[in-house]
Design goal:
single chain, 151 residues, alpha+beta, Thiol Ester Dehydrase, Chain A, six-stranded antiparallel sheet, 3 helices, 6 strands, globular
Length: 151
């Protein structure tokens, strides 16, 4: 049985991302290879808001999409056989239907509700919704693939 929550250290064991590019802080509500909620603490001093925009900081939408991708990669890496995932990486292939509905302002908890739609071989399709305090901020669909890690 899989853990139902992963902390940042557990996520680091699954993903190659490191600070400052490891965006997600926790993965909760994990349903094996199906869905999860990632939590990102959007901080006032985050590298991604310091110049975006001075005086009125907003988290860049492209990083919301990156956080979606990291959440999906962690969900998938956590769910598949560790021997199958050894020496592999998950690469983003495409982003579809991305919509940014409300600005994400620092000093909030961004909840990324993700769902695996289907997989075919090493290609996976996902969808997600980003929320702050239950309010929809963004949503998207994306595809990713599992590839061999180069030495």
């Amino acid at each position: 049985m899989s853990k139902v929550e992963l902390d940042k250290k557990s996520i680091e064991s699954l993903l190659p991302h490191r600070e400052p590019m490891l965006l997600i802080d926790k993965l909760t509500n994990i349903v094996h290879l199906k869905s999860a909620t990632a939590i990102m603490y959007v901080k006032k001093n985050g590298f991604y808001v310091q110049g975006h925009f001075p005086g009125q900081p907003v988290m860049p939408g492209v990083l919301i999409v990156e956080a979606f991708g990291q959440a999906a990669a962690a969900l998938t890496a956590h769910g598949i056989d560790p021997n199958e995932y050894a020496n592999k990486l998950v690469y983003l292939m495409s982003v579809d239907k991305a919509r940014f509905r409300n600005p994400v302002i620092p000093d909030c908890e961004l909840h990324l509700e993700i769902e695996s739609l289907r997989s075919h071989g090493r290609v996976w399709k996902y969808k997600g919704t980003a929320k702050v305090d239950g309010k929809r901020m963004a949503d998207a669909e994306w595809s990713a693939t599992i590839v061999e890690r180069k030495a």
